[in-house]
Amino acid sequence: MESHRTQASDYLDKWNVKFSYNEAGIPKYILKESTEGDQQIEKKLISSNKGVFKYTTHTNAESRLITDREILIDSNKKSYDEKVISIQVGLGKETRYEIKQISNTIIPSREFILTAGNISKMTLLK
């Protein structure tokens, strides 16, 4: 895979992208690293048990923003939780936060276009 840098569009990065799946077809490992060995994205399946999945991810945006996440997906409860640690390298600033799902709404539809009006309608369905 090839892509241009966000701050230097004349610089072309070349990437090796690897995927592996378990027997059930669940992604268990994803890696995007440069041909020089710099990892931009790494995602690992830590555990998978009866519809509950735990992942860790590591992203490195051109050595400016490094983010580590712990993600918990429970398909039985239809829940998603995430713990994030993010470091802005040039500023030496570390940010920690958690994402917790508050509600889950299923909207039957054959097609859904994400517009401001449709988002407003969704928030009213809580």
Q: In words, what does this structure look like?
A:
This protein has one helix at residues 116-124; strands at residues 2-4, 12-21, 27-34, 39-49, 52-61, 65-74, 79-88, 93-100. It has 126 residues and is mostly beta strands. A hairpin with a 5-residue loop joins strand 2 and strand 3 (27-34). It is globular, with a radius of gyration of 18 Å. The model has no long low-confidence stretch (mean pLDDT 87).
- The number of helical runs is 1
Average of pLDDT? 87
- Low-pLDDT sequence parts: none
Q: Strand sequence of the main sheet, in spatial order? A: 1-2-3-4-5-6-7-8
Distance between the termini: 41 Å
Query: Helical amount among residues, as a percent range?
Result: under 10%
Helix/sheet category: mainly beta
What kind of sheet is the major sheet?
8 strands, antiparallel
Question: Roughly what fraction of the amino acids lie in strands?
Answer: over 45%
Shape: globular
* N-to-C order of helices and strands: EEEEEEEEH
Radius of gyration: 18 Å
Number of strands: 8
Summary keywords:
globular; about 130 residues
Q: In a few lines, what is going on in this structure?
A:
By secondary structure, this protein is mainly β. It is built from one helix and eight strands.
